[in-house]
């Protein structure tokens, strides 16, 4: 039985990973937008070099879901609430409980594969199409409205444009390095018409600051991971359902 659960986990992980890689490849292609003001292409920058806080948050989240995947695999060794020798009094329950097991282990595998595919997709570093349009910034086929950003900044020495998150203004949510410093200056002039070139003066809640957002996320992830591993003590059907719920909410 454990081999079957392992196969379902691997199939779910493969399905999630392949779907994510396909969607990311499609999303990086140039999109069709009206009122394009500027358009350029560039190689994705290293997240660990230019966005270490964001990269750390993504890593913590990914490792947490992987840890829940480990909990799900351990839970498959637990006895079921009802097995072949002790059937329940409800035929419907005899059908629903195995379905919950299959759905739980498959969903956790799918989520693990989805998140692991993100860092794998960056190993190829294909060229990404950027554009400035009237409504916001286009990253491939994804349009990010101006309201997603609090402000932007320019590093003239390195020719970097940083767009800071509206939720946590201390964190850049998108960094671009146009092909030439002259293009960066030209783009900055256009962006100033839509975004301020400085951080907003209003103070942010503690969980929206640069230094406390990551610790808060670590605590949150630890809570979900702990709940998932505590659920391993439950009967197999309940354990897999609880772990799948934790992974989904995380």
Q: Low-confidence runs (pLDDT<50, min 5 residues)?
A: none
Strand order of the largest sheet: 1-2-3-4
* Alpha plus pi helix count: 7
What value does the Rg take, in angstroms? Answer: 23 Å
Silhouette: elongated
Order of helices and strands: HEHHHEEEEEEHHH
Distance between the terminal alpha carbons, to the nearest Å? 28 Å
Approximate strand percentage: 15-25%
**What structural category characterises the helix and strand content?**
alpha+beta
Mean pLDDT value: 83
Number of strands: 7
The biggest sheet, with number of strands, parallel, antiparallel or mixed sense and barrel status, is:
4 strands, antiparallel
Q: What's the helical proportion of residues?
A: 40-55%
In short:
The protein has 250 residues and is α+β, with helices and mostly antiparallel strands. It is built from seven helices and seven strands.
